Amino acid sequence: MTPRTRAARALAALGTVAAIVLGAAACSTPAVPLVLPSDLPGATVPPTPELARYYSQQLAWKPCTKYECADLTVPIDYARPGDGDIALKVLRVKAGDQGDRIGSLVVNPGGPGASGVNYAVGVNVGPDVHRYFDIVGFDPRGVGRSAHVDCLSDGRLDQFLGTDPTPDSTAEEQDVVSEAKTLAAGCETRNARLLPHLSTVDVAKDMDILRAALGEGQLTYLGKSYGTFIGSTYADLFPERVGRFVLDGVVPPDLSSTELAEGQARGFERATRSYVQDCVDQGDCPIGGSVDEGMAWIRDFLRRADTDPLPTGDPKMPHLTEAWASYGLGEALYDQGMWGILTAALEETKSGSASGLMSLADSYTHRNPNGTYSDNLMESIYAVNCLDRPDSPDLSSYEANAKKFSVVAPTWGPFLAWGQVPCGVWPVKGGAPPHTVSAAGSNTIVVVGTTRDPATPYEWSKRLRDQLSNAVLVTWNGDGHTAYGRSNDCIDNAIDAWYVQGQAPKDGLTC
Q1: Which of 128, 201, 454, 505 has the highest count of CB atoms within 10 angstroms of its CB?
Q2: Residue 15 lies in a domain
């Protein structure tokens, strides 16, 4: 999803609620053992002979701080594997009990553009999962340390991200297009060879090479947000290789660009109302005494930021524009633990300062206080999404969507509609078009949805569960983005039992 429609930020899935230790039964040998390479003929046999050298590689693990790191070699172009390779960075946190180790759990936090290497270090899984599984993360191609995409200088990226997100004149619309073309041209010029090969299908194929290199007959996987798109794509390509899968905060592969934007507009609108209700319930809410008053205040504040931006105290970004205000607001909606911070930031704006909201915006975009960016999330997110979901070059389609989305999401609709423009001018094509997946013949896939998730609306989790041939749906009736590791014991215990004991949650479990 674009910076205005992305499915997740890198740290969104790192909850503050610790998972609870399972009962004694969870510490025993798993009830349903995973399939080992020796049990599954052809576990390292490549889909085509040309890929044999990739599937037969062994990872050369080396110490990196307290963990182990390695490079995984994959082809740039799966259609022409002899045309060159790239190295994907992989990190492993070894299982606490190597004697009773079950296998490897590969994790991805989403984005697209978030680092799986960083996520493996901090992912919040249950203590028994850490005990029995090596936690393995990799930076997908084009992301972080894996042949990362670089499109704009940091200062130029500031300008791109600060473009008026809700243009209301022809000149402002043309500015949106101009900025989108600048990003696209920069990506093409600096990454010409790799840019056509950054689709989610490519990443899923890389993940099967990783599975083979890890010595696993089947892949055990935790995908959050966009990571669910990777996981469901993998399951559809390699259903017999699916081990214990959890897809939390779903992005269905069949969503069109328009469906994605409209769904997230609804999701962020619903999440914003939930935040405002909590603010009102807490008492002395600085933005109003009712939900409707609070929502109207936020919309008015964003309009004022468009014409009269507030000072931030940041010499590199001295004024909070509508775009940066929206990023700051959106950041806090990913985790209800940040709602108090948002309330304080909004109260601060009433005294004429936007430093708190700018700090939230920096967190959303992974922008450092000195004006640099800590990673390439805000560039790689387009490089992946615009291959997976190209959009229209016709500006009238965005105008129409902005009006349509405003009916159901007056706060977020136009913002999300216009955020799709870069994919309408993207210079390369070639990803698989949006399509349904079934993963026929796979093991059970556990799908998790949160009822008031802003970035991946609950309806999307139900949508994917209905498409998959063998899946169960687990629901958290709550707020924020994703559920496992940041919701409650009911969710955490169910997922831990699935990983450690092989006991799938009951379909329809609601927590």
Answers
A1: 454
A2: no
Label the pairing between strands 85-93 and 67-75.
antiparallel
Q: Does residue 44 sit in the same domain as residue 183?
A: no
User: Within this chain, do residues 375 and 472 fall inside the same structural domain, yes or no?
Assistant: no
The strand pair at 103-108 and 219-224 is best described as parallel
Q: What is the pLDDT along the chain (511 residues), one digit of tens a residue?
A: 333 333 333 333 322 222 222 222 233 334 455 655 445 556 778 889 999 999 999 999 999 999 999 999 999 999 999 999 999 999 999 999 888 999 999 999 999 999 999 999 999 999 999 999 999 999 999 999 999 999 999 999 999 999 999 999 999 999 999 999 999 999 999 999 999 999 999 999 999 999 999 999 999 999 999 999 999 999 999 999 999 999 999 999 999 999 999 999 999 999 999 999 999 999 999 999 999 999 999 999 999 999 999 999 999 999 999 999 999 999 999 999 999 999 999 999 999 999 999 999 999 999 998 999 999 999 999 999 999 999 999 999 999 999 999 999 999 999 999 999 999 999 998 778 899 999 999 999 999 999 999 999 999 999 999 999 999 999 999 999 999 999 999 999 999 999 999 999 999 999 9
Record the tokens describing residue 90, joined without a space. Answer: 């992989």
Q: Are residues 298 and 372 in the same domain?
A: yes
> Is the torsion defined by CA of 288, 294, 299, 301 positive or negative?
positive
For tokens 């080992």, name the residue: 36
Asked, for residue 146, whether it belongs to a domain, the answer is no
Domain boundary among 379, 407, 424: 424
Q: List the domain range (segments joined by +) for residue 396.
A: 154-190+256-388+391-424
Residues 221, 246 share a domain: yes
Coil, strand, or helix at residue 75? strand
Q: In the numeric block, which tokens belong to residue 151?
A: 């499109």
114 and 163 share one domain: no
The Cα angle at residue 320 between residues 314 and 321, in degrees rounded to 5:
145
Q: How far is CA 340 from the centre of its chain?
A: 24
217 and 68 both lie in a single domain:
yes
- Spatial separation of the C-alpha atoms in residues 290 and 277, rounded to whole Å: 7
Active site residues: 225, 453, 481
Region at 502 (left for phi over 0; alpha for psi -120 to 50; beta for the rest) = left
Same-domain status, 279 and 380: yes
- Read out DSSP for 164-181? -SS--SHHHHHHHHHHHH
Asked if 243 and 261 sit in the same domain, the reply is: no
Taking the chain, what is the end-to-end CA distance rounded to the nearest angstrom?
28
Amino acid identity at 341: I
What distance lies between CA 459 and its chain's CA centroid?
17
The CA-atom distances, in angstroms, between 212 and each of 55, 236, 240, 392 are: 6, 17, 13, 39
